[in-house]
Every structure is written in C-alpha cells, then in structure tokens.
Amino acid sequence: MKLVSRCVLVALLFAQGGHAFRRKKVEKxxxxxxxxxxxxxxxxxxxxxxHREAAEQRLHEFEDDLRITFKALPKNGRGAVAxxxxxxxxxxxFNQRHGWQIKGLETAGGAWDADSPVTAMGDRVPPKxxxxxxxxxxxYGMTLHELAILAATMDxxxxxxxxxxxxxxxxxxxxxxxxxxxxxxxxxxxxxxxATFITGPQVESLTEGEVHKALEHFTTRFPRHTEAKELLTTxxxxxxxxxxxxxxxxxxxxxxxxxxxxxxxxxxxCKVMKNRLTSLxxxxxxxxxxxxxxxxNDRFDFHFTESPSYLRGAGLLDESNPDDPKVIIPNYLxxxxxxxxxxxxxxxxxxxxxxxxxxxxxxxxxxxxxxxEKIASLVSGLPSSxxxxxxxxxxxxxxxxxxxxxxxxxxxxxxxxxFAQWMHEAYPRECSYPHLEVKxxxxxxxxxxxxxxxxEEKSKYWQIAKQREGSGENQTTxxxxxxxxxxxxxxxEAHVKSSTRDDLTIFGALGFIGMAVVRHVAPALRxxxxxxx
Length: 533
Description:
Layout: H1 2-31, H2 39-47, H3 49-72, H4 83-98, E1 100-102, H5 127-139, H6 144-172, H7 183-198, H8 208-221, H9 225-240, H10 248-278, E2 288-290, H11 291-296, H12 308-313, E3 317-318, E4 326-328, H13 329-333, E5 346-348, H14 353-365, E6 369-370, H15 372-380, H16 395-407, E7 412-413, H17 417-426, H18 455-471, H19 489-532
Antiparallel strand pairs: 1-5, 2-4, 3-4, 6-7
C-alpha cells in the first residue's frame, strides 16, 4: 500500500510540474507583450489629477456593482474582458443602478460588438481620453478595476452634461453661473430644468417664452409631476437644507442626484402598468396581450395608444400568428414610449426585472456557461414578481435548455440570444423576448407625437380580439428560433478552448497516474504471487 501511495505522489508531482511548465511558458510568452501602464496614471496624464481623483472616489462602488457580471463574462489571459463584454457589463450596470439606457451602450437590436462602449461618452470628450480607453480595450481588454474606471469616467461625463443644461436654464432665467441665488430663485431654476429637459426636446438654448410653454405643458406631458416635485424637494433638502443662498455647483449636485433617483420614481408607474397589462393577458402567465385588448380595455383610467407600426418597429409585438398580433409585456415596458430623456447621454426607462434574475444566475455559475442541469437547478429556485421560488420547471423548459446545450456541445452560454430566449420562456412577464438581430427603434429616436393609433385601426384589432376570445383560441404559436447571437463570440470560443485544454491536462495527469501505478504495482504483485507458490 505504501508503494502505491508513493507512486500516486510521484505522479501528482509530475502532473503539477507539467502545470508549472505550462504556466511558465504562458508567463514567458506574455512577457514578450509589455503589460499596460496603470490606467489611472494614464488618465491623470491625459486629463490631470482632478479627474483622476474624481474617478477614484467612485471606483469601489462601481467595482462592487460590476463584480458579479464581470466574473461570469469570458476573459483573456490577463483576466480582462473584450469590448463587446465591456459594453454589455456597462449597459447592465447603469440600467440596474438608475434605470438608465445609455446611448451607445444599448444595442437597439444590433450586435454587442457593433460599437465600442467608449462611444457612450459622446463627442464632447477630449480625443486623447477616447484614444486611451479605445487602445486599452483593443490591445489588452479591461480588468474589473479598469472597467470600473471607465464607468466612473462615464458617470462624470453625465454630470458634466447636467452642468451644461443647467447653464442653459440660468441664461434663460437671466442669471449667471457665478451668481449666488435665493431659495425662491433656486426653486424656480430647478423646476424649470426638470420641466424643460425631462419631456421637452434636447436643445442648446432656451428663450423665456419656451420656458413658460414648457412649464405650462409639463403637468399634462408628465403624469408624475407631483411626485417628481416632491422628489426634487427631498433631494434639495438632503443636499442643501442648511443653506440660505445657493451657488451653481449646489444646484448641479441636486439635479445629478435627481437624475439618478428618477428611475425609481418612474418604476413605480411601470409596476402599475405591468399589473394592468397582465390582467389583460390572452392566456394567464403568457406575458402576451392581444392587440385588440391592448387598445380596447375600458377597465382603467388611461388607455394604451401606441400605433401597431410603432410597436412593430420597436420590437414590442409578437406576430408569430400574423392574424392575431400580441403585445409582449416585458418588451413593451422596456419600450421607448415608457422612457423619459432628461439627458443627451441616456434615457430613463422601466427597471428590467430580468437583470436581477440574470445576476443570480451569474452569481451561481461564476462562468460564461454552465451545464443545463446546473442552470435548471439555479433557475428553478429563483422567484420573480410573478413566479414562485423552488418551482419545478416544465418538461418543455428543460427540453429547450437541452436543445441550447446541444447547439453548443453540451454547455449553455448565458450571455447570448438563445439563453435570453429561454429566460423569456421561463419568465414571460419579466424577461423580454430577444428578436433576431434586426434594427429596432432606439429609445433615442422616439417621438411620442407620431405614435398614436387611429380610431379605425383600433376598432379593427378590438373586433379581432373579441372574435378570438369567443372562439376559445388561446393557443400561442411558438416563437422559439434556434439561432444564436453571443455577446462576445470570440471571447466565448477562447474560453471554451481554454477549458478544453485544462480538461485535457487533468485527463493526461490522471492517465499518467494510472500508468505509473500499473508499472510499479504489477511487479510487486508478481513477486507476492511467486512467494505464495
């Protein structure tokens, strides 16, 4: 027995030595490519110490908020993500923090690798800053720390946008940015900012007449104006409750915080809207509302009025049965007509309930992919606002998950269209249906004045819904399409190859152990047998 133990130990040491050799080889290869400078140091060289200090103040919270998603994304040899994964992670970050959909991070139906996340900072950033981040992403990828630096820098750009818009309001109010203003003046400036930029057009100047018009129409164009004013008052008291006069920087801080917290206010209305839509489902739990019921409901104090062409262009319709189109509830809630755009950088939309579910899947896997059994076990335990915890997944759901795994050689990548489609099947009221990669209307292209359905068209769809309901036709045509679109195709393929190499190394080590044991134990057994004879 001691002999066997020694053989196993020798074999393990040999295998470990093989790992060490391979690791040294990788390290030697990576040394040929110079490791990049610390990103914060480079940022300071480009923009100065003040910008570095501003970024550093936000780093820890951004790292914490990015960590779960980052761990689950495919990474290169230095533990960094490529541009498509960086874009995806930043999109998730700002949506979960504030309900923000960032221009340049949202895909509007396109591919995640179509644009760099750096485009989200807009055209007003210094070219050297843009080059710095683009070079880091293109040459090395970004570690968690570096991605948090990019997020903090973007957040700073959004605050700068608030300052620029506030200057427009100051000028329209016959004030100068260097003025100290009274409480009443500050209150008027803050409310003018909210009224002109939340529902109005994004402009570079305002006249006194345009300000009056915006204030006059704000209460009708923004139903939650009373709650918005209360939120603004609360934040002003938190930031400057002790002050009797106010400078420009104080008002900028109030408005920045207002933009960060407006999403939560908007989401209260989204929850009410979701409850109303689910009560109209053509079949309970389907996440679908017949277009006629969408237009023809008379149970509520407001009506849905978006035209079919708008719903189609924004990717909010299920037309798997062209004769019976239906509104997809989670897609509709995330649609442009339910967003406000207080900034040139972002829109504020309904919080995506599926994000929280994805967070828990990512936390459970800590990898870009998992076995269908592991994923099914995780998801069956995840409750949502309409699904209980610890449910038994239907045979249909487990079969679809197995099909996705079969498409990828036995594993399910969780950052792609097929898994998103499966999550929609598992949570039809919470997770949006991912249409195939076609351009849908961006949240930044929405014009609410052009989207109203005509009375005649509304009546037509209402009649169709009544006929379908009367006939008992409540079956849904399958929307499942076995077509994949991964967030980071190259990164995923590299991850699969790396995992395969590791498995082969372990398999080889185990094989060596087996051969070593046989080679050393067999003679001993023969000797023992001869002694017995």
